[in-house]
Amino acid sequence: MDSANTRGGAPPVPVSITLTVNGREHRLDIDTRASLLDVLRERLGLTGAKKGCDHGQCGACTVLLDGRRANSCLALAVANDGAEVTTVEGLAEAAGAAGEGGLSPIQEAFVERDALQCGYCTPGQLCSATGMLAEAAEGWPSFVTEDLAAEPPALDDAEIRERMSGNLCRCGAYVNIVAAVREVGA
Amino acid sequence: MTSLERVEARDKVTGRARYAFEYPVEGAAYLMGVQAAVGRAEIASVDHEAALALPGVLAVLSCENAPEIAEVDDPELLVFQSRKVSYRGQFVAAVVAETWETAQEAARLVRITYADERRPDVRLSADHPGLYEPEEANGGFPAVSELGDPDAAFATAAVQIDATYTTPAQHNNPMEPHATVAAWEGDDLTVYDSNQGASTVQGTLAKIFKLEPAQVRVVSPHVGGGFGSKGTPRPNVVLAAMAARAAGRPVKLAVTRQQMFATTGYRTPTIQRVRLGADADGRLTAILHEVVSQSSTLREFAEQAAVPSRVMYRASNRRTAHRLTRLDVPTPSWMRAPGETPGMFALESAMDELAYTLGVDPVELRVRNEPERDPEQDIPFSSRNLVACLRKGAEHFGWADRDPTPAIRRRGRKLVGTGVAAATYPANRMPNKATARADADGTFTIRIAAADIGTGSRTALTLVAAETLKADPAQVTVELGDSALPRASLAGGSTGTASWSTAVVRACEALLDELDGEIPPEGVEATADTAEEIKSEPEYSRHAFGAHFAEAEVDIDTGEVRIPRMFGVFAAGRIISPTTAHSQFVGGMVMGIGMALMEQSVMDAEFGDYLTHDLAQYHVPACADVADVQATWIDEEDQHLNPMGVKGIGEIGIVGAAAAVANAVHHATGVRVRDLPITPAHLLPDF
Ligand code: FES
Ligand code: FES
């Protein structure tokens, strides 16, 4: 049996893009095959966003892309020319908690509630929670929202669990994650 | 003990904590593994040309050109040393390229021709012709134990339970995939690696590459989970070191999530027959627990699933036995509480069946069969508080009001039930070294090559050192996760805190002996080695115990099971760091919910390898699957353990959790599910 694909190898196609990451603009020549996640981690040294699956199945790579949470492993960098990206490294500053040791409210709540263990899912959880709280504040309903007319929907535990279910945590820190999000969302 | 915020929490919530793949190493290239596409064959040839022709490809490695490496105990590590394909998905080649994108593309172009291809034998069954009795089960336990005349006692017992339980293959799936960055400087090797024990990886690499241990440095301060899968070195660390040398460049290797299912270990499927014989009052007269599991053709790994039945309950007639067959599959290995996790699903389900048959409350049944001494070894327990855990949990959970009749409670369109199960895990210790240092500025530094894989060991050891030194934890820094530090044992078998804290306490005590008055500018340092202390342990049976209480809701239309609440009580010696310990217990219970309801690796019976090889197909609990899960503990003082009186807590949280869920599902529906995971397919036909 022959295991290899018979098609010939494709050499890289370089493209120039601009990304604004955590308020800083970067001009980059990138490989058109590169994901936004790999550009952040391998080119910009922003290793806060994690790679847990590279297939949009775990949420470890969640960043805020033009203000909305997104799996950066599923976003091709070339398709996001001109985008504004916030990673975990920029959460504190974006929340106006700049300075040494400053944390955004959700980061602070994660520390206080021990909403993490190994920490590998944590940056994704934090970006996801930040995006989710904004979505809820804007009145977006979720699959479990009972009263679609309520604005904004009440963020009870069932709502938080549903809305945070795109971010897997194998350490099983969910109970504390929900508590931290509840505290900040209240 | 005083609570302390997880020491590295702030580094983890800001993205500052660096994991293996994230170390910036000048000039690093990217390494991508290529897996065997067949389950059993010889490699006739590997054609590197097409891959090498791609611009940016630096090297291709396979059995055609791999340098020879030295033998070690685990043949999984002998990458590219043989032409034999032992299982589908085995690493058989690798490419090094300037970028990750090119490495992935080139990996597709490596052309492998197989010869003598045969249909792989990959199906475990209770009558597999290859079944044999190994000499030992994992952990060094004898494969078989027997007391009295179990067959006769069972045959004549007033009440008998005879049931077979199965658990599927399960994958650890830590969120951080296994990863290594390897760099050579002359004959000195540095790896930034994701593992559960830097000293162990150092020792293995030194052997494989014929180096002195001092020539190998393994750096692993933050590890994104392991759950046993990073306890033994995996092929990735060998491959990275080999490729870095071949390419003359540092290389970075991240095992992909898909590759992890074949190359980083898993829990074997098990088939377990449990027979319980009891008198009319529910006193056990016979316990028989017989286990069948699988290993690879490369190495024997016998999951010790019957071992917990050696300590749990009193009975004068008993047998536990393990049999094994060698299939064309990846080698199974440690996954959170190997042995206890699948074994206690079977035993604790059988106890529930016995309670139901007898009409005895399942908590009472366990209390009635509580042994005074270790029932097989006939030695005292160092401490045993199973009954206290059961009582405390029952009270908190409102167990007293429970009507034992199954399938009579409704909450809207849900059937509701509750279940209980016990937990146990051994408390062992390993030898370790540590240093403690005092500096003139009033700070202390503890050095030990321990691992913190999310377990909170950095935090626990900080508290241990502060208590011994009578210092404020803020004055103490613990350095760990680096093989350049004093040699330490693995984060595995729940031995970490017990083993490392012994060395830390002894080093701190030695430091206190040396300190008198002013600390000189160059500081004072003291060292400890616990090898002797651990050798001379008095004979006790040392185990942690616990009890899980679960409530299940089962949708009568869809058969979907939800767990609205779960409560665990543990007796695990002294709890050093309450904050991180609570997270550990709850995390284990959450993994237990996964085991009960969703986790299952499905083998491709035709071609080999696991079909469910990503997180869309191998389901782990998500946030919406976990509702009110709580854990607490009993203050347990045990003088026969170690200076801190700790038993270890990393694994017991998962042990018994799946049985508690299965027992709750039975109480809710009247359906006894003996084959995990519990899916609607089990429940709907019987409603
Ligand atoms: S790495 Fe992007 S979702 Fe898993
Ligand atoms: S903290 Fe380890 S995966 Fe979430």
Give a short synopsis of this structure.
Chain A has helices at 36-43, 91-94, 105-113, 122-137, 157-163, 174-185; strands at residues 14-21, 24-31, 62-65, 68-71, 84-86. Chain A is of the alpha+beta class and 186 residues long.
Main attributes of the structure:
heterodimer; A: 186 residues; alpha+beta; Ubiquitin-like (UB roll); DNA polymerase, domain 1; five-stranded mixed sheet; globular; disordered N terminus; B: 687 residues; Aldehyde Oxidoreductase, domain 4; 25% helix; 25% strand; binds FE2/S2 (inorganic) cluster
Number of strands of chain A: 5
The number of distinct helices of chain A, counting runs of at least 4 residues, comes to 6
Largest sheet of chain A: 5 strands, mixed
- Beta-strand content bin of chain A: 5-15%
What is the H level of CATH, i.e. the homologous superfamily of the largest domain in chain A? Answer: [2Fe-2S]-binding domain
- Helix proportion of chain A: 25-40%
- Could you tell me the CATH topology label of the largest domain in chain A: DNA polymerase, domain 1
Using the 3D structure, state the CATH architecture of the largest domain in chain A.
Orthogonal Bundle
Oligomer: heterodimer
